[in-house]
Write a sequence for this structure.
C-alpha cells in the first residue's frame, strides 16, 4: 500500500487483507487486473452503470465490478496519498478530489459526501466483548466494515450483533454520519432498536425508531436531529423521495431480512434512489434465507449492490459449536378415508376439464394428478399470450373458465390434503356461491357428491388426521416438558386452519393454553388481530399466560418470539425459505425440535422437492458464492490511509428505555427540582409526600370546631356553601351538647374525635387501609373504643363487628352496628367509632333502660346505642298509635344491629308480626338513626376499601367522627345545601333531609344512620338537618365509594346494592331510609323536641313516610333493617314492600321468607329481583306513581314516558328502593290526592301526576334527587307542605327531576352511582333548600294535613296491608 | 395583565399533562386487557387515545385560579398560625381552614 503514513502503521495488516482480498476477488471475477493506479477514464463509464437504479437488476457486472473496485481503491488511495501529509484528512476533501480526478461528472453535485471522519476513531474499530466472542461473527463483521456484505446466517446466530457492531463503528468514525437500519415490520423495528442498543449501547438520544406511525413532519425533524435510525423500508423510501432524509449524510445502511429485496420492494427502491443521487455508503444486508433459488439470490445481490456474500450454515466449523441441536421430524400423515374419496371425486372433475384443455392443445398432456396450480397458471399465461391459432376465438372464454375452475379445484385439493376437510369445504362452498366456477360446477355430480361427503364428515366431526396427530405430538411434548416453561408454536399457512387448530386445542384441557397469532387484515370470515393484540399475545406468551401460539406466516419472520421448544409445521408444502424461518423459531438458545406434518401424496412430495431445492441453493453459496454469483463493487468508506485496527472493548450500555416511556425525563425532572431545595424543604416534602405513594392527605374533619365559625378570609369571600357548612356544624355541635346531657360524654366524644384524629394522623392512611380488611376492623374498633370514653361501647362494638363479619350482609352490619358496625362493614372503624361513640354512649345510658323496657330486650346493646332518643321515639310512637308498636320493633332492630343474630330473629319477628312491623318503623327510626350514623362511616370505610377515590372519603370518614360531632355542634354541613334547607324547615325538612340523607345513606348505608342518630339523640330538627347534611356529605362519599367499589364481593355488593346499586339502589335505600327516616324523624321530633308541633310534624312526617310506605311502613321498617343490612336491606325493603303490597298481593309469607333470607344476608340480588318483579306485579300503580312524579316534575307528558321507563327500569333494578319510592310516592300521591282530589289513592296515575304536579314540585324534586324513593317520601312530605303553600321548589325540583330522570336512565342502563350522587347532591341542594323553606312554613299545616291524609291512605293501604301505618294522606 | 406573577403556564401544563398521561395510560392498559380478553378473534382497535389538551387561554385561567387558591390557602392558614403564635404554617393550620376553603372555591 502506498499509504505508509503515520496513521496506518498498526492497522496495516488488517486493512491490507481486506482490501487486497476484494481486489483479488475482483480480479478473479473480471479477469482484469490493473495496478493500484488506474486511469480515471475507464472508471466513469463503469461507475455510472453500477449505481444507476436501472442497472440494479441487470447482470454482466463483472467487468465493471472489477474495474470499479480497483478504481475505487486506486483512486482513493491516490487521493489519500495526497492527503497523507495532512493532519485531518476529510472524506469530503477526498471525495472532491476523487471527483476531480475520477469522476468529473460528480462535480456538478458538489460534495458527494460531506461526512467528516473522526481521525482518532478511525484508527480503530471496536468489537464489543460484552458477549462471548464468536469467530464467525468477528470475521463477518470485519468483512462487513469495508465492503457491502450480504450476511446469510442461520437464524439465531446473531446477525443483529454483526449489524450493531458495524453500525457502532460507523457511528464512531463519522461523527456527522447518519446510520439507517431497516427492518420490514414495525415490531421488528422496535425489537431491533432494543437489541442493537443492548449490544453496543449507542446513546439513545441519538437513536430513533421511525415507522409509518410517525408523521412525516416529525420524521423530517428526527432526520435532522438524530443519527441512528431504525425504520421500516417504506418509511425510508418515502423520506428519501420526499427529501426529508438527509441522504448526503448517510454512511451506513443495514437491511434486515434482505431476502425481501426483490422486485420493487421498498428496499430495492430505496437503494436505487440512493445510488442515483449518488451516495456513498456501506450496505449491510442480513438474512437467514437469501433466497430459494440461485437466481433469486443473484437478484438480491444485484439490488443491494452486494460485493461479498458471507454465508454460514449450521455445519460450518466455526458456526457449529453455537448451533443447538435441532431435531427435525417429518411425520407423514395418511389422508383420511373420506378425504381420499373426496379427493378422488375432485380428481374426476379435474380430469374431465384437464382432458378438454389438453385436447385443445393448451394444456400439456401429462398426468393431471401431478399438475399444480402454478403449472396451470403458466399454461394460462401462455395461452393468453399466444392462443393456439386453430382455436376459434369464441372458445377463449371457455378456456379461461376451465383454467379458473381447475385452479380452484387444485387449490381445494391442496387445502384438503394439507389442512383438512373443513377449509377445503369452505373454499368450495364459497366458490360455488358465485362466479364462473359456480356456473360450471354447480350441477356437476361429482362436485355435489364431494360437497355432500364433506358436509357429512363435518357434521360427524370426524377429526382431521393431521389435527389428531398434531394433538398427539403436542400432548406428548407437554408430558415430557414442563407445561409452564415450555413453549410451542404451531405454524399454519392458512387462517382457516388456525381456527381449526384453536378449536381442537381448546378441547385438550388446561395443559395447553393457546392463543392465535395472525395478521392484521380482516378476512372474510375471520377477523385479524391488531398489532396491539399481537403484542399482547406475545407478551402473554413470554410471561407464560399462553404456552402455545398458533401462528400464520407473520410468526415466522424475525419476531423475537422468545425461545420455543417445539415448532409444529402444520403444513409442509411451503417454500424452503419459510421453512427455515419457521424452524428458526426454535433451537436458538437451546435444543429444539421441529415437527413437520405432511400429508401423504402431493404435500409430501412438494416438501421433499423443496428441501432438495434448498440444498442446491446452499451449494451455490459455499465459498462466498464467488462461483455462482456476480458481485458488485463497493466503496470503501474509510480511506486507505486509515487502517482501523480492532479493539476489543467492554462497552458500558445504559439500560434501554423504550420510547414513549419517559421514565428518564421524569426522573431528571424530579432531580432537578430537588436540587433547588434546601435540606429543610426537602425534609418537609419528604414528611408529607414521600412516605408513600399516597402521601399525606390533609384531613377535612380534623378540626370540626374550626368549622363552626367562618374562618378569616384573605381575598376570596366565603361561599354560600361554606355558610351552610358552618350552620350545620353549629347545629351539630349544639345538638351534641344538648343531646349529651352528660358533659362527660360529650367531652369524651370530642376527645374521642380528637384522639381518633390523632390516631388517624398517626396511623395515617394505614389505619384506613388496614380498616379495609375486616380483621383489622376489630382492632381498630378496639383502639377507637379505648380512645373513646365509653369502652364498654367499644366492646359492644367489637361484638357487633364479629357478628357483622359473621355473615350478615354488610349493610346490616353497617346499620345495626352502624355505630360499631360502620367499622366492621367498612373497615374504617374510626369513623364509625366516633359517631357511634357519641350515639353509643348516649344510647347506652338512656337506651339501656328504655330499650330494655320497651322492647324488652335482649338487645340492650342496641338499645344503648339507640339511646334515649329511641326511647323517646318509642314513647312518642306509642302514643301515636300505629307507631306504638314501633318501639318494640325498635329494640329488636337495635338488638339486631348490635347482634346480627338478633337481627335475623328480629327480622323474622318483624315479618311475622304486623305490630312488629310497626314497631319496626320505630325501630327503623332508631336503626335509621344508627344506620345513618353508621352508614356514613361505613360508606367511607367501604370507600376506602374499595379504592383510592375512597381515600378522600376515608379521610372524610376518619374525620367523620369529628365531623359528626362538628355537625352536631354546628349543625351545618357544608357539603349538602340540603342540610341547611332541612334545618330551616324543621321536621319536614328533616324528613326531606332524612330522605335525602337516607338515600345517600342507603348508598353509603351508614352515613345516614349517623345523622339520624344525631337527630334522634339530640335536637331532632337540628340533628336531623345535621344528619342530613352529614348524610349528604357521607352520601357523596359513599357514592364515590360505591362507584369505586363497583366490583367488590358479595358483601361489598350488598353494601353497594343498598348504597350504590347506583341510583336505583340508592333510591331504594333512600326510600327505605326515607321511610325509616321519616318515621325516625317523626319519632325523633316527638322524642327530642318537646314541642308538640314538632312532634306532630315528625309524626306527620313519619306518617307521611309511613303513609308513603303506607302499607309499606312495615316494608320500610323492614327496609330500615334492610338498609342496615343493605343487601339484606334491599331484599328486606322489597319484602317490606311486598308486605306492604301484601294487601294487594300474596307475598306475605314469601316476603317473610325473603326477609329471613335477607336477614341471613343471602340471595340479596335474587330476592331483590324477585321482589322487584313482585313489586312490579304489585305496582301498576307504582309505575303510575312513578310516572306521576315524573310527570309532575316535568309536567310534560313526554317527559313522563321517559321517566316511566326510567322508573320502571329503576324499579326493576332498584326494585326495593323503587318500590319503596313507589309506595311512598303512591302513598303520598294518595295522600295528596286525598288531600286535594281525594280520588282513589294511587289508583290513577293521572291523579298522582296531578297531585304531584300541583303539590309536588318539591315532591318531584325530592324524588329526583333521592332517586325517587327517599325523594318521594320527602316529596310527599313536601307535597303536604306544598299543598298549603304551593310549589316553591317546583322549578328547581323539576330541573332536578329532569336531571334525575336522566340519571335514572343512566343508572338503569348501568350502575351510575357517581353521576347520580353528584346530581343528586346538586339537585338536592337547590330543591331541598327551596323545599325546606316552603316546608318549614307549611309544616304545621302539612302535618295536620298529613295526618288527615295519612288516615285515609292508611285505610286504603291498610286494606292492602293491615300493618301499614297509613299515615300519609289523611286529608 | 401580568401585574402579578402567577404560575408558569408551562409548569401547570406539565402538571396537567402528567395527570392526563397517567389517565391515558391507565385507559390504554385497561383497553389492552380488554383487547386481549375480548378480542381474541377481535377487531383491531385502531382507536387512538388522544391526550387531553388545553388551549392557551384555558391554561392561563387555570393558572390564575390556582394562584388564587394557593394564595388564599396560604393567607388563611397564616391567619390561623398567627393566632396560635406560630411563625410557621404547618399542615394542621391548613387543615383547619381547608373545609371552608374548599367550599369557597
Amino acid at each position: 500500500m502506498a499509504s505508509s503514513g503515520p496513521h496506518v502503521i498498526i492497522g496495516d495488516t488488517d486493512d491490507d487483507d481486506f482490501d487486497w482480498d476484494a481486489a483479488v476477488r475482483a480480479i478473479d471475477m473480471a479477469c482484469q487486473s490493473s495496478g493500484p493506479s488506474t486511469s480515471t477514464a475507464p472508471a466513469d463509464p463503469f461507475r455510472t452503470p453500477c449505481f444507476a437504479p436501472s442497472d440494479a437488476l441487470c447482470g454482466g457486472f463483472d467487468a465493471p465490478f472489477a474495474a470499479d473496485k480497483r478504481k475505487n481503491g486506486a483512486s482513493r488511495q491516490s487521493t489519500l496519498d495526497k492527503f497523507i501529509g495532512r493532519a485531518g484528512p476529510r472524506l469530503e476533501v477526498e471525495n472532491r478530489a476523487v471527483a476531480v480526478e475520477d469522476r468529473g461528472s460528480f462535480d456538478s453535485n458538489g460534495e458527494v459526501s460531506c461526512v467528516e471522519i473522526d481521525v482518532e476513531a478511525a484508527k480503530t474499530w471496536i468489537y464489543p466483548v460484552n458477549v462471548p466472542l464468536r469467530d464467525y461473527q468477528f470475521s463477518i463483521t470485519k468483512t462487513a466494515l469495508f465492503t457491502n456484505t450480504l450476511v446469510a446466517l442461520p437464524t439465531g446466530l446473531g446477525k443483529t450483533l454483526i449489524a450493531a457492531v458495524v453500525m457502532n463503528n460507523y457511528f464512531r468514525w463519522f461523527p456527522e454520519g447518519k446510520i439507517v437500519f431497516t427492518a420490514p415490520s414495525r415490531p421488528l423495528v422496535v425489537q431491533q432498536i432494543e437489541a442493537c442498543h443492548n449490544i453496543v449501547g449507542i446513546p439513545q438520544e441519538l437513536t430513533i425508531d421511525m415507522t409509518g406511525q410517525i408523521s412525516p413532519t416529525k420524521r423530517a425533524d428526527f432526520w435532522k436531529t438524530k443519527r441512528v435510525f431504525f425504520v421500516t423500508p417504506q418509511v425510508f423510501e418515502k423520506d428519501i423521495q420526499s427529501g426529508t432524509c438527509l441522504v448526503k449524510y448517510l454512511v451506513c445502511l443495514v437491511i434486515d431480512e434482505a431476502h425481501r429485496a426483490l422486485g420493487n420492494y421498498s428496499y430495492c427502491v430505496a437503494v436505487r434512489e440512493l445510488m442515483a443521487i449518488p451516495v456513498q455508503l456501506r450496505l449491510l444486508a442480513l438474512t437467514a434465507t437469501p433466497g430459494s433459488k440461485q437466481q433469486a439470490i443473484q437478484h438480491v445481490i444485484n439490488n443491494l449492490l452486494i460485493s461479498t456474500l458471507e454465508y454460514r450454515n449450521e455445519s460450518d466449523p466455526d458456526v457449529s459449536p453455537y448451533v443447538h441441536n435441532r431435531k427435525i421430524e417429518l411425520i407423514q400423515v395418511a389422508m383420511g378415508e373420506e378425504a381420499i374419496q373426496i379427493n378422488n371425486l375432485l380428481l374426476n372433475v379435474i380430469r374431465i376439464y384437464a382432458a378438454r384443455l389438453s385436447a385443445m392443445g393448451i394444456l400439456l398432456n401429462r398426468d393431471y394428478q401431478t399438475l399444480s396450480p402454478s403449472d396451470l397458471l403458466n399454461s394460462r399465461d401462455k395461452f393468453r399470450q399466444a392462443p393456439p391459432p386453430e382455436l376459434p376465438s369464441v372458445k377463449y372464454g371457455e378456456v379461461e373458465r376451465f383454467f379458473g375452475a381447475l385452479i380452484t379445484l387444485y387449490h381445494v385439493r391442496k387445502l384438503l390434503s394439507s389442512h383438512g376437510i373443513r377449509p377445503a369445504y369452505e373454499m368450495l362452498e364459497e366458490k360455488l356461491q358465485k362466479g364462473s366456477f359456480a356456473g360450471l360446477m354447480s350441477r356437476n355430480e361429482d362436485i355435489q357428491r364431494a360437497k355432500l361427503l364433506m358436509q357429512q364428515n363435518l357434521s360427524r366431526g370426524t377429526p382431521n388426521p393431521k389435527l389428531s396427530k398434531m394433538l398427539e405430538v403436542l400432548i406428548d411434548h407437554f408430558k415430557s416438558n414442563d407445561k409452564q416453561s415450555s413453549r410451542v408454536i404451531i405454524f399454519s399457512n392458512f387462517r382457516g386452519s388456525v381456527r381449526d387448530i384453536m378449536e381442537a386445542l381448546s378441547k385438550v384441557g388446561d395443559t395447553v393454553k393457546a392463543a392465535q397469532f395472525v395478521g392484521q387484515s380482516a378476512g372474510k370470515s375471520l377477523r385479524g388481530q391488531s398489532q396491539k393484540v399481537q403484542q399482547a399475545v406475545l407478551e402473554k406468551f413470554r410471561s407464560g399466560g399462553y404456552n402455545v401460539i398458533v401462528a400464520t406466516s407473520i410468526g415466522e419472520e424475525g419476531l423475537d418470539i422468545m425461545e420455543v421448544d417445539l415448532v409444529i409445521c402444520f403444513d409442509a408444502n411451503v417454500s424452503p425459505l419459510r421453512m427455515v424461518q419457521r424452524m428458526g423459531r426454535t433451537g436458538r438458545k437451546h435444543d429444539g425440535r421441529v415437527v413437520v406434518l405432511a400429508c401423504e401424496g402431493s404435500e409430501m412430495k412438494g416438501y421433499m422437492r423443496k428441501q432438495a431445492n434448498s440444498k442446491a441453493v446452499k451449494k451455490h453459496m459455499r465459498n462466498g458464492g464467488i462461483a455462482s454469483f456476480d458481485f458488485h463493487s463497493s466503496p470503501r468508506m474509510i480511506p486507505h490511509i486509515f487502517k482501523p485496527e480492532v479493539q476489543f472493548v467492554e462497552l458500558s450500555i445504559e439500560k434501554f428505555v423504550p420510547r414513549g416511556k419517559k421514565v428518564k425525563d421524569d426522573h431528571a425532572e424530579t432531580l432537578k427540582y430537588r436540587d433547588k431545595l434546601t435540606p429543610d424543604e426537602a425534609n418537609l416534602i419528604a414528611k408529607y409526600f414521600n412516605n408513600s405513594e399516597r402521601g399525606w392527605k390533609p384531613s377535612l374533619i380534623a378540626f370540626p370546631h374550626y368549622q363552626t365559625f367562618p374562618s378569616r378570609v384573605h381575598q376570596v369571600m366565603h361561599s354560600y356553601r361554606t355558610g351552610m357548612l358552618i350552620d350545620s356544624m353549629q347545629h351539630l355541635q349544639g345538638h351534641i351538647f344538648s343531646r349529651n346531657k352528660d358533659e362527660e360524654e360529650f367531652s369524651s366524644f370530642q376527645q374521642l374525635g380528637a384522639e381518633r384524629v390523632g390516631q388517624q394522623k398517626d396511623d395515617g392512611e394505614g389505619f384506613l387501609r388496614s380498616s379495609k380488611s375486616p380483621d383489622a376492623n376489630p382492632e381498630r374498633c378496639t383502639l377507637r373504643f379505648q380512645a373513646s370514653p365509653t369502652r364498654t361501647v367499644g366492646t359492644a362494638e367489637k361484638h357487633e363487628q364479629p357478628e357483622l363479619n359473621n355473615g350478615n350482609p354488610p349493610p346490616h352490619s353497617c346499620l345495626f352496628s352502624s355505630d360499631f358496625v360502620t367499622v366492621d362493614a367498612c373497615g374504617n372503624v374510626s369513623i364509625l367509632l366516633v359517631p357511634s361513640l357519641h350515639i353509643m354512649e348516649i344510647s347506652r345510658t338512656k337506651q339501656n333502660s328504655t330499650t330494655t323496657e320497651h322492647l324488652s330486650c335482649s338487645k340492650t346493646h342496641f338499645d344503648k346505642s339507640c339511646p334515649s332518643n329511641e326511647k323517646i321515639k318509642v314513647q312518642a310512637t306509642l302514643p301515636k298509635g300505629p307507631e306504638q308498636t314501633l318501639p318494640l320493633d325498635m329494640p329488636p332492630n337495635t338488638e339486631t344491629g348490635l347482634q346480627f343474630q338478633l337481627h335475623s330473629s328480629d327480622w323474622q319477628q318483624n315479618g311475622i308480626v304486623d305490630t312488629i312491623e310497626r314497631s319496626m318503623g320505630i325501630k327503623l327510626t332508631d336503626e335509621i338513626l344508627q344506620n345513618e350514623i353508621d352508614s356514613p362511616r361505613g360508606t367511607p370505610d367501604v370507600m376506602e376499601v374499595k379504592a383510592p377515590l375512597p381515600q378522600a372519603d376515608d379521610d372524610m370518614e376518619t374525620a367523620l367522627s369529628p365531623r359528626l360531632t362538628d355537625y352536631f355542634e354546628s349543625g351545618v354541613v357544608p357539603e349538602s345545601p340540603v342540610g341547611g334547607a332541612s334545618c330551616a324547615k324543621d321536621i319536614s325538612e328533616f324528613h326531606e333531609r332524612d330522605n335525602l340523607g337516607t338515600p345517600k345513606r342507603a348508598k353509603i348505608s351508614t352515613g345516614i344512620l349517623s345523622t339520624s342518630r344525631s337527630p334522634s339523640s339530640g335536637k331532632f330538627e337540628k340533628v336531623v338537618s345535621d344528619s342530613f347534611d352529614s348524610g349528604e356529605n357521607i352520601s357523596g362519599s359513599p357514592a364515590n365509594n360505591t362507584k369505586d367499589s363497583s366490583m367488590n364481593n358479595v358483601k361489598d355488593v350488598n353494601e353497594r346494592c343498598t348504597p350504590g346499586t347506583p341510583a336505583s339502589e340508592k333510591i331504594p335505600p333512600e326510600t327505605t331510609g326515607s321511610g325509616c327516616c321519616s318515621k325516625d324523624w317523626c319519632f325523633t321530633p316527638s322524642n327530642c323536641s318537646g314541642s308538640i308541633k314538632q312532634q306532630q310534624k315528625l309524626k306527620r312526617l313519619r306518617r307521611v313516610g309511613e303513609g308513603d310506605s303506607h302499607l309499606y311502613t312495615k316494608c320500610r321498617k323492614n327496609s330500615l333493617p334492610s338498609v342496615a343490612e343493605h343487601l339484606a336491606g334491599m331484599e328486606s325493603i322489597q319484602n317490606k314492600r311486598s308486605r306492604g303490597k301484601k294487601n294487594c298481593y300474596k307475598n306475605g309469607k314469601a316476603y317473610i321468607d325473603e326477609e329471613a333470607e335477607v336477614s341471613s344476608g343471602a340471595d340479596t340480588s335474587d330476592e331483590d329481583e324477585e321482589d322487584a318483579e313482585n313489586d312490579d306485579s304489585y305496582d301498576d300503580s307504582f309505575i303510575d306513581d312513578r310516572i306521576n312524579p315524573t310527570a309532575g316534575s316535568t309536567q310534560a307528558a313526554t317527559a313522563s314516558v321517559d321517566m316511566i321507563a326510567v322508573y320502571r327500569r329503576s324499579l326493576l333494578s332498584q326494585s326495593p328502593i323503587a318500590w319503596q319510592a313507589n309506595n311512598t310516592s303512591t302513598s303520598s300521591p294518595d295522600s295528596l290526592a286525598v288531600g286535594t282530589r281525594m280520588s282513589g289513592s294511587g289508583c290513577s296515575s293521572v291523579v298522582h301526576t296531578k297531585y304531584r304536579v300541583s303539590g309536588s314540585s318539591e315532591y318531584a324534586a325530592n324524588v329526583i334527587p333521592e332517586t325517587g324513593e327517599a325523594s318521594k317520601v320527602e316529596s310527599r312530605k313536601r307535597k303536604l307542605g306544598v299543598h298549603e303553600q304551593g310549589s316553591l321548589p317546583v322549578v328547581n325540583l323539576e330541573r332536578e327531576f329532569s336531571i334525575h330522570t336522566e340519571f335514572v336512565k343512566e343508572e338503569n342502563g348501568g350502575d351510575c352511582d357517581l353521576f347520580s350522587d353528584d346530581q343528586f347532591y346538586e339537585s338536592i341542594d337547590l330543591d331541598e333548600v327551596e323545599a325546606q323553606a316552603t316546608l318549614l312554613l307549611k309544616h304545621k299545616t302539612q302535618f295536620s294535613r298529613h295526618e288527615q291524609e295519612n288516615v285515609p291512605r292508611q285505610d286504603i293501604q291498610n286494606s292492602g296491608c293491615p300493618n301499614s301505618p297509613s299515615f300519609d294522606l289523611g286529608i | 395583565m401580568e401585574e402579578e406573577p402567577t404560575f408558569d403556564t408551562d409548569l401547570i401544563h406539565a402538571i396537567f399533562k402528567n395527570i392526563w398521561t397517567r389517565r391515558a395510560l391507565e385507559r390504554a392498559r385497561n383497553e389492552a386487557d380488554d383487547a386481549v380478553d375480548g378480542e381474541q378473534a377481535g377487531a383491531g382497535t385502531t382507536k387512538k387515545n388522544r391526550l387531553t389538551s388545553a388551549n392557551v387561554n384555558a391554561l392561563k385561567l387555570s393558572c390564575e385560579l390556582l394562584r388564587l387558591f394557593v394564595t388564599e390557602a396560604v393567607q388563611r392558614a397564616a391567619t390561623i398560625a398567627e393566632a396560635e403564635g406560630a411563625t410557621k404554617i404547618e399542615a394542621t393550620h391548613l387543615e383547619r381552614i381547608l373545609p371552608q376553603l374548599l367550599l369557597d372555591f
Remarks:
- The interface with chain A takes residues 32, 35-36, 39-46, 68, 71-72, 75-76, 79-80, 91-92, 94-105 of chain B (CB under 8 Å).
